[in-house]
Amino acid sequence: MSSQDIPEENLPAEQDAHGAVGVADDKDPFADPGLPPHEHRVQDIDERAAKRSERVVAMLFTLSMLATIGFIAAYVGVPHDKAIYVFPIGHINALNFSLGLTLGVALFSIGAGAVHWARTLMSDVEMVDERHPIEAPPEVRAKVMDDWKQGAKESVIGRRKLIRNTMLGALTLVPLAGVVLLRDLGPLPGTKLRHTMWRKGLQLVNMNTNEPLRPEDVAVGSLTFAKPEGLEEHDEEFQTEIAKAALMIVRIQPDNIKDKRELEWSHEGIVAYSKICTHVGCPISLYEQQTHHVLCPCHQSTFDLSDGARVIFGPAGHALPQLRIGVNEEGYLEALGDFEEPVGPAFWERG
User: Fold this and answer.
1) Three-state SS across the chain?
2) Residue limits of the Rieske domain (predicted)?
3) Residues 279-323: pLDDT tens digits?
């Protein structure tokens, strides 16, 4: 059934470019010549089709409500440690899967319902409006201010201080209810961001060979990665600890070391610096022998290991922390303490 089969008096009214309401007319002298003739949708001329669209939109919104209820039920009732098998992904956490599925359905249904509503039931007549200044004229602004002052006066908020103060208190405290949502972020870090596994007497262990390092194992111009003695890959906390304790070991001719403290904290030109970039925490892995520069591959922050590992290029905010090292009685490289400053990116508590 097309719009040509409908009597003209039954066609929906339209607005032209000047706001006039009436039946579309290709010969209308006021019609915008740049717009094609308007084509009516089936919902515009068939109420049964419009009712079907209305039911579809209502069904999508109802599905969103049910999915939201399912999200709350899953959050309360599904155990944190339960796993389910999902083909073809495999075994995944049941709580994460149910929360993601229900919230995704809830949000998608709202969006799909709104789009279907707009495309099938809301007016789709294109209207042209002349541009006008956005700023309100002075008389309108003056009237708005007068109305606001009059409303404030009639609300007696200035005279009824008890109401005003309790209202401000209520509005200030009610956002604190959202603090309970922080529960799932885990325990507060405490001092974990400021300290690592390193302590006096811990040997430096080669990450590749898993053997303690001797000074003769580190050649001039080489780059070696090290970890603390006793930290094994099968340990439950390995990833957490290595993310803070990973070291870069480089041997530089002592005459080429520019920073006095760096020279004092080294052993025969062997310097130990944190491997964790101070920008966003990426592992540094690129070393240039001639310049003694190390480069972070993520965002190209560059540090000069011959000058206190200061930043010479890129977005990193501060130099790499240095670990003070020495040699124990058995001839192995060892730490003489922990880093004196936090490892990795800055954080809000950092002084």
Assistant:
1) CCHHHCCHHHCCCEECCCCCEECCCCCCCCCCCCCCCCCCCHHHHCHHHHHHHHHHHHHHHHHHHHHHHHHHHHHHHCCCCCEEEECCCEEEEHHHHHHHHHHHHHHHHHHHHHHHHHHHCCCCCCCCCCCCCCCCCHHHHHHHHHHHHHHHHHCCCCCCHHHHHHHHHHHHHHHHHHHHHHHHHCCCCCCCCCCCCCCCCCEEEECCCCCECCHHHCCECCEEEEEECCCCCCCCCHHHHHHHHCEEEEECCHHHCCCHHHHHCCECCEEEEECECCCCCCECCEEECCCCEEECCCCCCEEECCCCCEEEECCCCCCCCEECEEECCCCCEEECCCCCCCCCCCCCCCC
2) 239-334
3) 999 999 899 988 999 999 999 999 999 999 999 999 998 999 999
